[in-house]
Amino acid sequence: METKVISGVHFSSLPASYIRPESDRPKLSEIEEFDNVPVIDLGCEDHNLIVKQIGDACREYGFFQVINHGVSKALVDNILCVAHEFFDLSVEEKMKLYSDDPTKTMRLSTSFNVKKETVHNWRDYLRLHCYPLEKYVPEWPSNPSSFKDVVSTYCAEIRQLGLRLQEDISESLGLDKDNLKNVLGDQGQHMAVNYYPACPEPELTYGLPAHTDPNALTILLQDLQVAGLQVLKDGKWLAIKPQPGAFVINIGDQLQALSNGKYKSVWHRAVVNADKARLSVASFLCPCDSANISAPKGLTGGEDPAVYRDYTYNEYYKKFWSRNLDQEHCLELFKN
Ligand SMILES: O=C(O)CCC(=O)C(=O)O
Question: Which residues form the Fe2OG dioxygenase domain (predicted)?
Fold first, then answer.
């Protein structure tokens, strides 16, 4: 029972299987807010300025926020609304979609990788493959009835935003704008709709423990009402306050590798709270399985030898899911 969904179930105390050892707790009262998170205005007419700001943010932080990104407020409101409706369904209804098999292209699950982990995380999540839409939308939930329509429109717009950002990131590395996109191939797109119920003892557990994202680029939409995302900066965990109209953009492991370690795939985690459920929608752009991840020539050589060996994304992804989330950075296993 402890490996099944937690949303819609009443808990008066935290079950033992979620309690972290004392040395590995979020220390919520000590966390400061990150008040100079780069916010990049993608509507700015000065393209060179955008590219420079993105390069600075990727080098210094591995993440940034974007505004004026072209995804309408109505669509953002709609996806948050339909996601809340989904998690408000009865446990019986949600359990029809439950699976703990990470190879499934559509599943509702809980925690992170329940078969591998020793301590669970206070999260349920709906994981969807989203590209190409016509292949995957038919298997998505049909309850709530607007789910497929709203989520597929959102996915298409987020994909355009992600590809545009990859062009800017490519330019910021001094590469041709299509360079990274060409290496990444016909990219897959996955979504995790994360739901973190109010937690009876938030000091003792995580929604998601510290991890980096195994893909290329992540676009995160945070519930405006409830904070929970934290990133590691200079050895300190800092809270990212949700900002109206913004997406949080994370550099994933593959962009760290392709940039030859110049850009950082940032460690981040989600914490929970006692009062309110929190929701986030993470969209992941993933290299195609056969993409050969090898830093471009312009970024290696001389004083900058290749930090990582060449590998295919398929090899990396299998390795990532065969491990527990809060182990060492998976990229460490691919170092030269
Ligand atoms: O909920 C969040 O803020 C973080 C989500 C996340 O890191 C993930 O889905 O990989």
Answer: 187-287
Closest CA to 198 of 223, 221, 231: 223
pTM over 0.90: yes
Which of 199, 220, 325 is the pocket-test mutation for ligand 1 (most atoms within 8 Å of CB)? Answer: 220
Compute φ and ψ for 298, nearest 5 degrees: -60, -15
For 225, half-sphere exposure in the C-beta direction (CA atoms, 13 angstrom radius) is 11
Instruction: Answer for the pair 25, 204: CB distance below 8 angstroms, yes or no.
Output: yes
60 C-alpha vs ligand 1 centroid, how far in Å?
20
CB 259 within 8 A of CB 299: yes
Instruction: Enumerate domains of the chain plus CATH numbers.
Output: 16-334 (2.60.120.330)
Angle at 113 between CA 111 and CA 115, to 5 degrees: 115
Three-class SS state of 307: coil
* Contact criterion met (CB below 8 Å) for 257 and 293: yes
Distance CA 279, CA 274 (A): 14
Per-residue confidence band for 191, with pLDDT thresholds at 50, 70 and 90: very high
